[in-house]
Design a protein that fits this description.
With 367 residues, the chain is α+β, with helices and mostly antiparallel strands. The chain has eleven helices and 14 strands. The strands form three sheets. Strands 1, 2, 3, 4, 5, 6, 9, 10, 13 and 14 form a ten-stranded mixed β-sheet that branches. A two-stranded antiparallel ribbon has the order 7-8. A two-stranded antiparallel sheet has the order 11-12. The longest helix has 12 residues. The protein starts with 38 loop residues before the first helix and ends in a 5-residue tail after the last helix. It catalyses: a uridine in RNA = a pseudouridine in RNA.
Length: 367
């Protein structure tokens, strides 16, 4: 606070009294000036969005119903959800309504505690996400996703089920890979930008001294290039942060539609590309068909600012509920009630609306 302004406007800066804090019981004088830092508004916003412990977070009825509609499978050990885009998975400042916090509070069902995350998806990525309902199921599945050798046990059936584990993503990329299918082996590393304020994942070079992580992705092109884009199926064999996005953008040279972090330069050129392609059946110039009544301005490939077109469509993993007794070494044999259950579970999640629109626009040319 500054004292009331003097009538002597020629007063120099050096003779002014320094700023001081206002005491709670102090009476303000007319004409006094109060200096409020800009961060005061930011502090209010960040306080509102602080992560709330699941024990104190009570979603309302609509939020609970919304989350339960996302559930595509539930048993005694796991819950599988179809995550929508733009919903953060892990709570962190300034995130409040993250999926892990809401699920822990709203999807406990008949359990004392809510489920816990097994693996993550990026905020803008949609598709299958896995939660564990028990501590032991969470730990076994996290080992499975980090290193399959850590998850193996003395049970041959369980080990075979672990070998069957995979994820498949569908992505719409700008351009088309040179090869129709292949394996990307491109290690990743993290670099610091903006004087260490931000972190970015990039392809690791052999001459780099930075620590690197092995990253392997299988890919397969699903169809011809239409309107400058093509659909690609991705199967990660390792699970690194932003692995699929970087492999598409930097290793294949075909960034995912809507990925402005790793494909901004290509996006800027792609928007200026002439929309002339050749129809595979007639060999004539092709023009995009727009079905009547279809709203293409909902993040699809034809919208001004497309959303990220990356979707975890399929997940295959061991039936952890069946094997928990064996993994915990409480029994060497499976209980009779579980022996008829399948060793492996398979889940398929439908695409979000913006990807469905893009798919429908191009589906007649997919093979």
């Amino acid at each position: 606070m500054e004292d009331p302004i003097s009538n002597n406007f020629s007063q120099n800066e050096e003779t002014r009294k320094p700023l001081r804090k206002i005491r709670p019981n102090e009476v303000m004088k007319p004409g006094a000036r109060i200096h409020i830092p800009v961060s005061i508004a930011e502090a209010r916003i960040s306080k509102r969005y602080d992560p709330i412990p699941s024990g104190t977070l009570y979603p309302n009825a609509d939020e609970i119903k919304y989350l339960q509609r996302l559930v595509i499978y539930k048993d005694s050990a796991i819950i599988v959800l179809n995550k929508p885009p733009k919903l953060p998975v892990k709570g962190n400042l300034p995130v409040h309504n993250s999926m892990d916090a809401l699920a822990a509070a709203a999807l406990s069902y008949d359990y004392d505690e809510g489920p816990k995350l097994v693996h993550r998806l990026d905020r803008e990525t949609s598709g299958i996400i896995l939660f564990g309902r028990k501590e032991d199921s969470v730990s076994h599945l996290q080992w499975l996703f980090s290193n399959i050798n850590n998850a193996k046990s003395s049970s041959k059936v369980w080990n075979e089920a672990c070998e069957s584990t995979y994820q498949r993503y569908w992505a719409l990329v700008i351009g088309t890979p040179k090869e129709k299918e292949g394996v990307i082996r491109a290690p990743l590393t993290k670099v610091l930008l903006d004087d260490g304020k931000t972190e970015r994942v990039v392809l690791a070079h052999r001459s780099s001294m930075e620590p690197r992580q092995e990253a392997v992705t299988e890919y397969r092109v699903l169809g011809p290039k239409i309107n400058g884009c093509s659909w690609v199926e991705l199967r990660p064999l390792t699970y690194r942060k932003h692995q699929l996005r970087i492999h598409c953008a930097e290793a294949l040279g075909t960034p995912i539609v809507g990925d402005y972090k790793y494909g901004w330069f290509v996006h800027s050129r792609w928007k200026q590309m002439p929309r002339v392609d050749i129809e595979p059946t007639t060999g004539k110039p092709y023009k995009m068909r727009r079905p009547e009544g279809l709203d293409v301005q909902k993040g699809s490939v034809l919208s001004k600012v497309p959303l990220l077109h990356l979707h975890c469509r399929e997940l295959v993993l061991p039936n952890i509920a069946k094997f928990l007794h064996v993994l915990n070494k409480s029994s060497e044999e499976l209980p009779r009630s579980l022996s008829a259950e399948p060793d492996v579970l398979r889940f398929v999640a439908t695409m979000p609306s913006h990807m469905k629109i893009s798919w429908n626009l191009m589906s007649s040319y997919l093979v």
